[in-house]
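User: Um, any thoughts?
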Amino acid sequence: MEPSSKEIEFHHVFDRITDAYVALDNNWRFTFLNAKACDFFGRSACDLIGKHIWTEFPEAADHPFRFACETAMAEQRAVSMDAYYELQPRWFENHIHPSPDGLTIYFVDITDRKRIEDVLQHS
């Protein structure tokens, strides 16, 4: 089935957002990733759509990010968190927004900000 013009415009809007954006359904499967998220993951949206986040990224299974996602989903409340990802190695600010259908997650690299904070804290 061909996407509607409304769906195409929706995708164009989210591709222009400077933060990475990911949507998951309530079974933890990717339903949308913008270009920034694809760049971060080093994979295409076509490669991830329909796939389970914790299967595709098993290193995140025991990460505080997963707990934050599960909390947001279970309690149906937004959760924000900063988290360090050792495999990258970078800091990210994550904003996790639930709905009955799943989660939307916005994240941005804040590694430079964390480095500056660390320098200021130690001076």
Q: What stands out?
A: Residues 5-121 form a domain with the Beta-Lactamase fold (CATH 3.30.450.20).
